Amino acid sequence: MDILKASTDWVKAELFSTPFFILFGVLFVLASIGFWQLGKTEMAKAYIIPTIVAGALLTIIGLGLFFTNKSRLAKFPIAYENNASAFVESELARSEATLKEYRTIVFTVIPIIIAICAIGIMFFKTPIWRASLITAIAMLVVILLIDGTASARVDAYNQQLLSIEKDFKE
To answer: Which of 66, 88, 131, 148 could form a disulfide with 46 if both were Cys (CB 3.0 to 4.6 A apart)?
Structure first.
């Protein structure tokens, strides 16, 4: 198995998925503009600020991940050529740390925050609080969906790295 190909394929898949953060960010901003232009009720007007903030956050996340992975794609061949064994070890350590972060943040913390927001909707009666909590839930669901697929890709990449690491040790 060619680990450089596996690594670049993984980064290319990440480069494909990170623009979805930007897409959803733009959709949130468009929703905010829609609420601003068309919102007649107090509840509709309450969504203006939360949706624009969520849109900005998702766009920033998407851009950050995109440019990080873009630079990683350029650095992989150089790192592999310099020392293939060290490249595999560093990628293995990074992928395992990423998987641990996904387990902690994406699959534990985010669902807890979603549950807290859902409970908060029952207790907060003002439109701005409700709009903020509902928008937070929507944004976190987007993050959960995109990062859920990213976690599966990192896990598959990690398994490839583990099999390659065995070859280097033999």
So the answer is: 131
Q: For residues 118 and 80, what is the distance between their CA atoms, to the nearest angstrom?
A: 47
The structure tokens 């623009």 sit at: 19
What is the number of domains present in the chain? 1
pLDDT digit string, tens, across residues 33-58: 999 999 999 999 999 999 999 999 99
Name, in order, each residue with C-beta under 8 angstroms of 114's C-beta and a sequence gap of 6 or more.
Answer: 137, 140, 141, 144
In tens, the pLDDT along 71-124 reads 999 999 999 899 888 898 999 999 999 999 999 999 999 999 999 999 999 999
Domain hosting 116: range is 3-169
Please say whether the beta carbons of 165 and 88 come within 8 A. Answer: yes
